[in-house]
Give the backbone structure.
Amino acid sequence: MRLATWNVNSIRTRVDRVLAFLERSGTDVLAMQETKCREDQFPHLAFQAAGYEVVHHGFNQWNGVAVASRVGISDVETAFEGMPTWGDPAGAEARALGVTCDGVRVWSLYVPNGRVLHDPHYEYKLQWLGALREAAGTWLRSDPDARIALVGDWNIAPRDEDVWDMSVFAGATHVSPPEREAFRAFEDVGFTEVTRSYVDQYTYWDYQRLRFPRNEGMRIDFAYVSPVVAKRTDAVSIERDERKGKAPSDHVPVVLDLAD
DNA sequence: ATGACCATGTCGCATGGA
């Protein structure tokens, strides 16, 4: 199975590019983040015409996650156990979507941004990651052979080399020790971040200040997978070319080849 | 060239992004 994750930054703006990528790359399952639309606004027909079934979870112009699959899709969940709520009145945001595609439990994840250190959004981000880790650990303990892939935009640069200049990020989110520890802690419950051992590449470049031409990017899109999936990962690529051309997302796809 | 923010809702500007 070829499994990809991509923060598309609006599916309505990007649908042609996403479908072209699916065709070009031979992706079987695509986890998307930041669809930025309600369910009734999602371009389902275009995906259907291309041979993909889509499950989408989105309330409004904020957040939104989806999975497109041409190898089946079932057992939909729009939250994990203990997932924190946000807002007034408090409610679950559209940041997580779990589906099963050809035996693999795929979670499309859009981790909260955090905004600035010690902001309520930052505390929410850490709680959200902690709850996800707890839930994911439970899944693996109940079935150590489970095929699980936690993929998406983690909004954390786990290492200094994951940003082009650490001095620019002094006192900022995405690189703070608590965020990095919250990311690393998924290892403690049995998951492996499988992309780094295969490819050294940023996954995001800000639209501003010529960040892409200057290659001033960030590595914030990752795949934490269960032991069986880690063993079956044959290749990983980061599709840097998707940042080029007309109307790109600010993120590029991360693609995993998984053996059957 | 890979080029100086972008997308949403709404219609002048606020909000969010990282």
Notes: The helical segments of chain A are 11-25, 44-49, 120-142, 177-184, 227-231. Residues 9-10, 12-13, 34, 36-37, 60-62, 113-115, 155, 157, 169, 172-174, 204-215, 218, 220, 240-241, 243-245, 247-248, 250 of chain A lie near DNA strand B (CB under 10 Å from a C1'). The first strand of chain A starts at residue 2 and ends at 7.
